[in-house]
Amino acid sequence: MVNLVIDGKEICVKEGTTILQAALQNGIDIPTLCFLKDINEVGDCRMCIVEVEGRKGFATSCIQKVEEGMNIKTHSHAVVEARKIILDLILSNHHRDCLTCSRNGNCELQALASKFNVQVVEFEGERTNHKVDDKSPAIVRDFNKCILCRRCVATCKNVQKIGAIDCINRGFDSCISTTYDHSLNDVDCTFCGQCIESCPTGALKEKENIQDVWKKLHDEDTYVVAQTAPAVRVALGEEFGMPIGTNVVGKMVTALKNIGFDKVFDTNTGADLTIMEEANEFVERIQNNGVLPMITSCSPGWVRFAEKNFPDCLDHLSSCKSPHQMFGAIIKSYFAKKYNIDREKICVVSVMPCIAKKYECTRPEMEVDGIRDVDYVITTRELARMIKQANIDFCELEDGKFDEPMGEASGAGAIFGTTGGVMEAAIRTAVDTLEGKSMDKIEYTQVRGEKGIKEATLKVAGKDIKVAVASGLGNARKIMEKIKSGKCDYHFIEIMACPGGCIMGGGQPIKSSKIRSTINVAKLRRDALYTIDEKSVVRKSHENPVMIKLYDEFLEKPGSHKAHKYLHTKYTKKEKYDI
């Protein structure tokens, strides 16, 4: 252990701890910009500088390890003045259009400028007007707002193991870009959006569809339906000052109805539908010597990753569409016919925690008889903006309920939003199917938790079924390399593109590096979903009365010809560089 003093406070920490870590562990705030816990700890921005007694100059606290007897000052006059100069230099090359920036009010650079009272920028940098990259259907890249912190690069390269972006050129010409400065649309980007979540400014943001949705809502000839993903309800409240993980499902439904949607449905029901088809597909592969392991296909960022990096393994992917695409197809067929609504006049808007869904809904495969399954995808953040634009006091709303005839979802549908949830939901139905009866066991905790790769062996109908769960594309790559080498003995695999699953998707409320360093955001959101599941009357997808009725009246049975027409798709090889 190492003994030291920070701001007059005597503390004791483990050897190898950085000054920044020691401060955080003892409730002492040191400002940071480039720092991202366990991802980007390089000391580039220098905002975390501190004074160490007896030493010349400043120490960079995010990389400087503690030493016995250190006496550290984190906010001396010299430190504060140096930080102001650092901020001034950063701002001198940063386009300061804060009023129109998507991160206004939630920008780490803006917050620090306010904290250190930097009101006038003394230095004048060369603020070149860089062309904004908005070619992608999911991500907008604006280098004019970039501060070269490299957090996005570290996330893409070290966590997701993609490397679609990097720092190019040298010195004053340095910038964050792609191979040959091509659009993100034309390189290996999977549109997972984790770069957006890590960016401290507005240099990266989602491709906004708010105005498109408002236009449809104001068109009297269009019947506009909203559907909301499970992860949205446990994160949306954060945009209105509520504690992380607060379940605001009732207020969310009311807000959507007040905005003007004709119907508001629950994508959890679409998740139940996915399980009906996916569990059936898995059972068929088990019983008929089909291609194993079968891998889930509900994460579009993961699917794009597989198409680009492992095209020879695509037959392992389930042919099921993702829940919101399935549900969109059902809304424009079963629901439209049942209520005598012209399917061509229905506009389906999916509220998702994921920006890759924006790309997914544009895929040519995602339509039936020339009608798109889903018309627009907006993120959790975009919905929050719409609620604010509509001048709705979200926190004071009464709790509403999803509309019939598809308002009821199972607890299994709710846990789709977290890593391991899709696997657990599928197991609940697959086990009952293979055993030929309803089993008492509901919870399969072996596949829960934060670990990047989880493995379990289940005894089902006298057979050992080996399953694996991976979240984050870096972990997905490890799994796929095992399959490719022939060293994989799993039967069923769940893969989600985002670390932690949809609850930590690229479209969720963005948390500062300080919050991410001190609060387990994923756990709070995940626990909220499991609470929804625990409180649900129906906890297995195949026992959901809505599913039973839907198959009786329309789809016939899981895996039927009609089910394949509306609910299944195919995946094809994508070139690594579509240039």
Could you characterize what this model shows?
This protein is of the alpha/beta class. The protein folds into three domains: 2-75, Ubiquitin-like (UB roll), CATH 3.10.20.740; 121-206, Alpha-Beta Plaits, CATH 3.30.70.20; 211-567, Rossmann fold. It has helices at residues 19-25, 77-92, 108-115, 151-159, 194-198, 210-217, 249-259, 267-287, 300-309, 323-338, 356-360, 380-389, 411-414, 421-435, 473-485, 513-518, 521-535, 545-555, 561-567, and strands at 2-6, 9-13, 49-52, 59-60, 71-73, 139-141, 166-168, 175-177, 204-206, 223-228, 263-266, 294-295, 346-352, 367-368, 371-372, 376-379, 453-460, 463-471, 492-496. It has a five-stranded mixed β-sheet, with helices on both faces. Strands 11-10-13-16 form a four-stranded parallel β-sheet, sandwiched between helices. It has a four-stranded mixed β-sheet with strand order 12-19-18-17. Helix 8 packs across helix 10 (323-338) and helix 8 (267-287) crosses helix 14. The longest helix has 21 residues, at 267-287. It is globular. The model has no long low-confidence stretch (mean pLDDT 94).
